[in-house]
């Protein structure tokens, strides 16, 4: 961890940058080479090579990301799912069991329910805000606890402090997907999480032009994940590293703007007569509002809501949008609108969606950095019957 820069804004610009600058270049060049000169005596995992995630472009990112969350180490991967799958496979082995929050990103849910059982890795779903129920799910083989800082797509706020305490009490590895919150709003290592995972495709890059992931946490665990990744091959390309490093420099500016925009939009939606309900932790009536206000430095840019009038009202709304873009993914500078049941969570069965509380009419908004009054005007004309 690079501790010499105090504030988030300064870390985003200066932490992890190579010194002295290469030929005086202010921006780290792209090292678009797969192979480097070999030095005798290096171990397998130390050989300079793109697949080993140890080129100058990778190393600069690792140091910057660790500094942003005040953690010991970090690692970038080829995608968010590469980060999730590799981290879980590094921590869990055949015969192991782990606890999982019951509302998750669809890709994570599918990996846990469809892929891990074939490796003899079992799981139990838990309610993130009901710590009194967790003990009953423990087994002798339980090794980890996996949650999201803000759940996708219902924006629930897990009892994160209780998760960490429970893991310490029972010798479990505490893993969190911090994509929705970002290091600007929440830094998991500060409350005791062992590993923090990001889809860098989203807020960290912020420009909807790369796919990438990151694992941040204790040095020992990140090393373990790195060695697993070196074998599985999910490394990030140097040019994607370059774009991610560039995007990170404006992370705080973008996220703070998205925090403000989302709060204004959520308040507008919550007061609209055609809106059934709004999920946003910045609203005072959100069940996790007090916890989010205590844990986070901002409530994030993600909102989900349901309209009155069912699927017809939702289709009319999406057809009428002129400024917001109908597209999956999230975290970019542009506002995106999607129905999770048909995109991010499309791999889940109807029964699984129902159990998770995700309806066919649920709409998710990833708030961009446009003027909030323009976004509100767009949503208002699209919602109007």
Write a compact overview of the structure shown.
With 385 residues, the protein is of the alpha/beta class. 36% of the residues lie in helices and 15% in strands. The protein has helices at residues 8-14, 56-68, 80-91, 106-115, 160-170, 182-185, 219-232, 238-248, 251-271, 289-295, 310-320, 350-356, 372-383, and strands spanning 73-77, 97-101, 122-126, 142-148, 173-177, 195-199, 213-217, 275-279, 302-307, 325-326, 336-338, 363-366.
Question: Can you give a write-up of this model?
Answer:
The chain is of the alpha/beta class and 385 residues long. The chain folds into 2 domains: 8-248, Aspartate Aminotransferase, domain 2 (3-Layer(aba) Sandwich); 251-383, Aspartate Aminotransferase, domain 1. The protein has helices spanning 8-14, 56-68, 80-91, 106-115, 160-170, 182-185, 219-232, 238-248, 251-271, 289-295, 310-320, 350-356, 372-383; strands at 73-77, 97-101, 122-126, 142-148, 173-177, 195-199, 213-217, 275-279, 302-307, 325-326, 336-338, 363-366. The strands form 2 sheets. A 7-stranded mixed β-sheet has the order 1-7-6-5-4-2-3, sandwiched between helices. Helix 6 (182-185) links the parallel strand 5 (173-177) and strand 6 (195-199). The longest helix is centred in the C-terminal third of the chain and has 21 residues, at 251-271. The chain is globular and about 70 Å long.
